[in-house]
């Protein structure tokens, strides 16, 4: 596909867009079929101006996506059901939009990874998938977005870098052990996305609907100000839950401790700001750190890379 001005509108079926390596303006797609029914796509680029596509999803795949950088927006062009979604760096989503037509736009430094899977293959691999996922697939269309946990971001980053190295050595098909490793990571990506999007059902046997509602309220309060976390006692008082129920409930519902979740989301926000080219010292200060070395240590613990190294890689 030839380069086009940023203002151009491209009438593009998904099967054509992702049918192989392609260039769109300052962006490049790289796709590889890991096995029949499972494909991996990496999209990278640096956009001085936004680009927009009119797209038609004729691929009929479930997509597990992780945005490492940049911003994407998608709005459906459907008279019966209009929707608009935005996916920023540091976010993930699970989507299924067969035959949907819409408009997608992208801006900034784009880096995203997508694992696309045939729904029948997913059902064969995961017959005991969350009932909510089966229900949404039965509805024929859904989009579920979440913050990308540290493990998912690290997995997506490693897969993207592996694809980059493979392309540099001319191994565009990922031969041998490289393909096996990548397939394994694709399963990790999909499982993490399913867990993030539909994992609440694990707690339903032990938590009432009212308790889950209060715990989600506690999470919202916890993350309202990422410069300083409220105490667990404060969260308990605000939600009417016992302190021990808050502690145990966070692990049941969100698979993390109260302060573990706070720190993870704090570092995800830090990464988003660094990718947006904010100075390291300013990001540290804005997120409540008075000591830059403490911020750098926390960031490295979360992502395995120093903030300054992340900025140099841009």
Automatic annotation (TrEMBL):
| Alphabetical list of Pfam families matching this protein | HTH_18 (PF12833)
Q: Which InterPro entries match?
A: Homeodomain-like_sf, HTH_AraC, PchR_regulatory_protein, Tscrpt_reg_AraC-type_HTH
A single GO molecular function term of this UniProt record: sequence-specific DNA binding
**Mind telling me which residue stretches traverse the membrane in this protein?**
none
SUPFAM superfamilies recorded for this chain?
Answer: Homeodomain-like
Domain HTH araC/xylS-type: residue ranges: 216-313
Sorted keywords for this record are: DNA-binding, Transcription, Transcription regulation
Protein known as? HTH araC/xylS-type domain-containing protein
Please name the source species: Novosphingobium guangzhouense
């Amino acid at each position: 596909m030839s380069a086009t001005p940023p203002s151009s509108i491209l009438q593009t079926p998904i099967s054509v867009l992702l049918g192989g390596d392609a260039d769109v303006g300052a962006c490049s797609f790289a796709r590889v079929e890991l096995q029949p029914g499972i494909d991996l796509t990496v999209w990278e680029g640096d956009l001085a101006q936004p680009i927009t596509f009119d797209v038609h999803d004729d691929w009929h795949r479930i997509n597990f996506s992780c945005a490492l950088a940049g911003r994407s927006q998608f709005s459906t062009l459907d008279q019966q059901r209009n929707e608009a979604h935005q996916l920023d760096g540091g976010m993930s989503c699970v989507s299924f939009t067969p035959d949907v037509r819409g408009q997608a736009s992208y801006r900034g430094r784009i880096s995203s990874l997508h694992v696309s899977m045939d729904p029948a293959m997913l059902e064969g691999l995961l017959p005991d998938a969350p009932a909510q996922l089966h229900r949404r697939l039965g509805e024929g269309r859904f989009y579920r977005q979440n913050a990308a946990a540290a493990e998912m971001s690290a997995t997506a980053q490693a897969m993207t870098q592996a694809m980059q190295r493979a392309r540099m050595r001319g191994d565009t098909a990922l031969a041998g052990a490289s393909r096996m490793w990548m397939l394994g990571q694709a399963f990790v990506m999909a499982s993490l996305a399913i867990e993030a999007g539909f994992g609440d059902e694990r707690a339903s046997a032990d938590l009432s609907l009212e308790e889950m509602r209060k715990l989600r309220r506690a999470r919202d309060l916890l993350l309202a100000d990422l410069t300083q976390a409220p105490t667990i006692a404060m969260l308990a008082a605000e939600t009417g839950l016992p302190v021990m129920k808050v502690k145990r409930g966070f692990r049941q519902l969100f698979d993390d401790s109260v302060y573990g979740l706070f720190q993870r989301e704090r570092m995800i926000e830090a990464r988003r700001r660094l990718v947006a080219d904010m100075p390291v010292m300013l990001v540290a200060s804005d997120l409540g750190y008075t000591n830059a070395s403490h911020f750098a240590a926390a960031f490295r613990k979360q992502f395995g890379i120093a903030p300054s190294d992340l900025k140099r890689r841009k």
